[in-house]
Design a protein that fits this description.
elongated, mainly alpha
Length: 71
């Protein structure tokens, strides 16, 4: 009985986590890219930091494009 409750809770949490990641995965990737860009910039790699900084709007724009295709 207890294992069924645990299994049911795990499946619900897995579905919730997957929905959360499906919705916010591009935002998380864009934020990591932003942090990487800032890190490169302040370590003295200014050109590389600007190049990686361009990834942020590209990731978000691509995510928006794919979300409009779904609808």
């Amino acid at each position: 009985m207890l294992y069924r409750i645990f299994l049911y809770t795990f499946v619900l949490n897995k579905k919730y986590i997957m929905k959360f990641l499906e919705k916010y995965y591009p935002v998380i990737l864009a934020f990591v890219s932003f942090l990487f860009s800032v890190t490169l910039w302040f370590k003295g790699y200014k050109d590389e930091g600007m190049f990686v900084g361009i990834w942020v709007p590209s990731i978000l724009g691509l995510a928006t494009f794919f979300n409009t295709l779904k609808k």
